[in-house]
Design a protein that fits this description.
The protein has 412 residues and is mainly alpha-helical. The protein is built from 15 helices and no strands. It has one domain: Growth Hormone, Chain: A (Up-down Bundle). Helix 9 packs across helix 14, helix 10 packs antiparallel against helix 13 and helix 10 packs antiparallel against helix 15. It is globular. The N terminus is likely disordered.
Length: 412
C-alpha cells in the first residue's frame, strides 16, 4: 500500500529532506569505495608490484564480488532483526577493513580486505533499498529513489577529485583512511537519528525454509526477476567503464590530472538525469520514462560502437556519446529498481538482497569482462555497452509480456 509522503518523519524519525540525504549517503558508500581510488590505481599497482595494468582492475572487482554475495545474507537478516542493527554492523566492518588496507604488505592482502570490505558495504546497498520500500511504494518510491540517486551521483563527481587531491599531497594509503572516516560520518546519524522502519509484525523468521521461501517469491515474480536482470546488464556496462576509465581517459586520451574532471562530468549527467526522473515520474510513470530511456541508451551505444569501428574517436565525440548513454542510464536505474521492488514489499529485505546480489555479481562479472577486453582503444567498451543494451531490451520485453510503455496501474 502506498503511504503518503508526510508520513516520512513518523516512520523513519527524519524529515523527507533528511531521509533522502541519509539514504543517499548510505548508497554513496559504494561510489566512494570505487571512484575515490581511481586516480591512485597506478600507484597502488606500482607500490605492490602489479605488472599487468589490467590486473589493477581487480581492486574494484574484488570489492564488487564481496558486496554481491553478502547481500544474500544481509537481506534475510534485516527481515528478521530489523534494519538498523545489521546496517550499523555492516558499516563497522566496512570501516575496519578500510583501515586494515592501510597496512597491507601485498596486493593479494589488499584484494582480500577489499573483498571483506565489500561484504560490509552489502548492508548499505540492501538495507537502504529496504528502508525506502518500508516507507514508500509505487511512483512515490520511484520519485524518492530518483532523488536518492541524484544525491548519490554527486559522489562520483567529487570523489575522483578528492582522490587526485590526496595523491598530490600524500600517497594511496591515505585514500583508505578517508574512506574509513566517511564510514564513521555516516554511522553516527544512522545510530542517533534513524528509527527502525520494519514493524515487528512484518518480521520474518531467520530460518533456512523461510529464507528459501523468500527467495522463491522473488525469483518466481516475472517483473522483479527480469527488471533485475535488465539492470544487471546495464550495470555491467557502467562497471566496464569504471574498470577501464583511468586507462581510457589517461592512457588513450592523455588527460592526466584532468581525468577526474571528465569523469565527474559523466557522473554529473547521471545526477541530472536522476533529478529529471524525480520531476517527471509522477506525471508520466516509471514505464514510459524508463522504457524511452532504454531505447535511447541502445541507440546511443549503437552509434558509439559503429563510429569506433571506423577509426579512433576524437575526445569530444567520445565525451558526447558516452555522456548520452550515462544520461539515459540515470533515467533508467531508479525506475527499474522501483518496478522490481514494487510487488515485493512484504519481503523487502530478502527481495533487496536477491536483487542486489544479481545486479552486483552480474554487473561486476560483465564489467570485468569488458574491462579486461581493453586493447588500447574505446571499441571494447563501446561494443560492451551495445551488447548489454540489447540484452536489457530483451529482458524488459519478457518482463512486460512483449509490450513497452504500458502502465500497469495509476501508481506505477
Amino acid at each position: 500500500m502506498t503511504r503518503p509522503i508526510d508520513q516520512t518523519a513518523t516512520l523513519s524519525g527524519l524529515t523527507k529532506f533528511q531521509f533522502i540525504t541519509l539514504m543517499a549517503m548510505l548508497m554513496s558508500i559504494n561510489a566512494v569505495s570505487i571512484d575515490i581510488m581511481l586516480p591512485g590505481l597506478q600507484e597502488i599497482g606500482a607500490s605492490l608490484g602489479v605488472a599487468d595494468e589490467n590486473d589493477r582492475q581487480f581492486v574494484i572487482t574484488a570489492y564488487l564480488i564481496g558486496m554481491g554475495f553478502a547481500q544474500l545474507f544481509f537481506g534475510p537478516l534485516s527481515d528478521r532483526f530489523g534494519r538498523k542493527g545489521p546496517l550499523l554492523g555492516g558499516l563497522a566492518l566496512y570501516g575496519l577493513c578500510a583501515l586494515a588496507i592501510v597496512f597491507v604488505p601485498t596486493f593479494a592482502a589488499l584484494l582480500f580486505f577489499r573483498f571483506v570490505q565489500g561484504v560490509g558495504a552489502a548492508a548499505t546497498r540492501v538495507i537502504t533499498v529496504s528502508v525506502v520500500r518500508d516507507v514508500y511504494g509505487g511512483r512515490q518510491m520511484a520519485e524518492i529513489m530518483s532523488l536518492v540517486m541524484m544525491v548519490f551521483m554527486i559522489v562520483p563527481v567529487v570523489a575522483p577529485s578528492i582522490g587526485q587531491l590526496i595523491m598530490l599531497f600524500s600517497e594511496w594509503h591515505m585514500i583508505f583512511v578517508v574512506i574509513a572516516l566517511f564510514a564513521v560520518t555516516i554511522a553516527v546519524p544512522v545510530a542517533l537519528r534513524l528509527q527502525e522502519t520494519l514493524a515487528p509484525a512484518n518480521r520474518r523468521a531467520f530460518t533456512v525454509s523461510v529464507i528459501l521461501d523468500g527467495f522463491r517469491i522473488v525469483l518466481t515474480n516475472r517483473l522483479a526477476l527480469f527488471y533485475t536482470l535488465a539492470t544487471s546488464a546495464l550495470l555491467g556496462g557502467l562497471f566496464g567503464f569504471v574498470n577501464s576509465a583511468q586507462q581510457i581517459l589517461v592512457g588513450v586520451y592523455g588527460l592526466g590530472i584532468w581525468f577526474p574532471a571528465v569523469f565527474a562530468a559523466f557522473a554529473g549527467m547521471m545526477a541530472v538525469a536522476s533529478f529529471t526522473s524525480s520531476r517527471l515520474v509522477q506525471r508520466f510513470g516509471m514505464r514510459a520514462l524508463s522504457h524511452a530511456a532504454l531505447l535511447g541508451f541502445t541507440l546511443a551505444s549503437f552509434v558509439w560502437v559503429s563510429l569506433s569501428l571506423i577509426g579512433p574517436l576524437p575526445l569530444p565525440l567520445f565525451i558526447i556519446l558516452h555522456a548520452a548513454t550515462m544520461f539515459q542510464f540515470g533515467l533508467i536505474a531508479a525506475n527499474f529498481n522501483a518496478m522490481a521492488m514494487e510487488p515485493l514489499g512484504h519481503v523487502a529485505g530478502t527481495a533487496s538482497s536477491v536483487l542486489g546480489f544479481t545486479q552486483t555479481i552480474g554487473g561486476g562479472v560483465i564489467g570485468a569482462f569488458i574491462g579486461q577486453a581493453f586493447d588500447g582503444t574505446v571499441t571494447p567498451l563501446a561494443a560492451g555497452f551495445f551488447i548489454v543494451a540489447i540484452f536489457a531490451v530483451a529482458f524488459v520485453l519478457i518482463a512486460e509480456g512483449g509490450r513497452l510503455f504500458r502502465p500497469h496501474n495509476p501508481t506505477v
